[in-house]
């Protein structure tokens, strides 16, 4: 068996490939936990704005840009497993994502807005990649999306944490999965890739803060003049 077909050890080290596999597997497990929790509570903890971007990114990288994934065939399978899991999540975002919205006008037009966002994300990511702004692994577009994920997770939790549907396991897997992949990417991309060297720590910091929130957050009491 030609193992280099599944693991591109001609270009990457075993440690780099292992970190990418472990980090990616953590995201797959995260999706599985999230799906189980969605089925239980009829609520999706992934913000709908990034759920639209997530399905667009994974769909493009799992099926359209697979020839650009140079880690090996196993990692194409991993990207596709993300997409399959995310299809279940997105289907429930369509059904239950309106629960995240308080504005009655946006809530009324939620589904057209969600599908429009998905199309917009797909167009932006596709044009970003074919314009040559991304690395073969989708690093840059993934970081942009991950920044939105990490920031909007915090905002949604602040608004709806009392629902009791936000999983601590998801918070940990999100931080560890992205963190391990970031360490791998830093050893795989050119040393002058400053964008990635900024985005990685920023995402990690937001993810660590989110972990703190799921254990400690209580809605602060506002001064009467601001309430």
What does this protein structure show overall?
The chain has 227 residues and is mainly alpha-helical. The chain has one domain. Helix content is 70%, strand content 0%. It has 8 helices and no strands. The chain has helices at 14-41, 48-64, 73-96, 104-108, 110-130, 139-160, 168-186, 194-216. The longest helix has 28 residues, at 14-41. The protein is globular and about 55 Å long. The N and C termini lie far apart (67 Å).
Q: Helix and strand layout, with pairings?
A:
Blueprint: H1 14-41, H2 48-64, H3 73-96, H4 104-108, H5 110-130, H6 139-160, H7 168-186, H8 194-216
User: In terms of per-residue confidence, which ranges show pLDDT below 50 for 5 or more consecutive residues?
Assistant: 223-227
- Please provide the ordered H/E string of secondary-structure elements: HHHHHHHH
Instruction: Kindly estimate the percentage of residues that lie in beta strands according to DSSP.
Output: under 5%
Globally, the shape reads globular
The N- to C-terminal Cα distance equals: 67 Å
Mean pLDDT comes to: 92
For the sheet with most strands, the description reads:
none
Structural class: mainly alpha
Integer-rounded radius of gyration: 18 Å
Overall domain count: 1
Q: Count the DSSP helices.
A: 8
- Helicity, in percent? over 70%
Structure summary, number of beta strands: 0
């Amino acid at each position: 068996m030609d193992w280099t077909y599944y693991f591109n050890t001609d270009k990457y080290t075993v440690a780099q490939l292992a970190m990418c596999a472990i980090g990616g597997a953590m995201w797959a497990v995260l999706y599985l936990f999230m799906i189980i929790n969605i089925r239980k509570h009829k609520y999706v903890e992934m913000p709908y704005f990034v759920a639209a971007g997530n399905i667009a990114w994974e769909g493009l990288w799992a099926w359209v840009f697979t020839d650009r994934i140079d880690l090996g065939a196993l990692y194409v399978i991993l990207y596709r497993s993300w997409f399959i899991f995310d299809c279940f999540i997105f289907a429930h975002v369509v059904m239950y994502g309106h629960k995240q919205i308080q504005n009655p006008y946006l809530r009324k037009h939620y589904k057209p807005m969600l599908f429009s966002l998905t199309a917009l994300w797909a167009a932006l990511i596709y044009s970003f990649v074919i314009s040559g702004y991304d690395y073969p692994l989708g690093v840059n577009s993934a970081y942009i999306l991950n920044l939105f994920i990490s920031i909007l997770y915090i905002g949604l939790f602040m608004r709806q944490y009392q629902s009791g549907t936000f999983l601590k396991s998801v918070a940990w897997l999100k931080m560890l999965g992205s963190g391990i992949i970031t360490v791998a990417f830093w050893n795989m991309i050119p040393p002058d890739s400053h964008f990635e060297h900024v985005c990685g720590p920023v995402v990690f910091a937001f993810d660590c803060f989110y972990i703190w929130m799921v254990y400690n957050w209580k809605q602060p009491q506002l001064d009467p003049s601001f309430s």
